[in-house]
Amino acid sequence: MRLFLAIDLPEDLQDRITELYCPELEQVRWTVSHQLHITLVFIGDQPHQYLEEIIEAVSETSFEPFELCLQKIGYFKSGIIWLGVEESEPLKRLQKSLSHKVRGLGIELEQRKYMPHITLGRSKKLTPQVVSQVSHKGLGFSANMEVSAFQLKSSVLKANGAEYLTEGEFLPD
User: How far is CA 94 from CA 7, 34, 88, 104, 141, in A?
Assistant: First the structure.
């Protein structure tokens, strides 16, 4: 099972974000609105029997609700177009705590620096024109959201992209 910890977005925010999409850019596969999220920890492929252990470990995570600001469109060289998440101490603390708990189970995690973002779309042919068009549409976009839960998700890869299922939801203290 391919697993990750994430923060789901409220429906009204999902709708606002999908207005940034440029459907005329056929080389971009846009993220389905109900799958928009902020990844906290990518756990990766794990045997199904680890699911309960992971749920138990992360359920002990203590956090208070906090606010996030979303703005600025960017991209990774891998072809991912993203919406940025402004730096936030509560988000960093939550992410570090969850990473620590997952590593405590003996699960190895990626070593790269955590960069919170929302994946808007993917393209194998990410040209400067595509980036420019999407960035232009996103100029001035800004949204705040309250984080009052996080989820453990599983990802099933299908021909038309991944399908995410919520395996557990975790609320603040």
Answer: 11, 23, 10, 15, 25
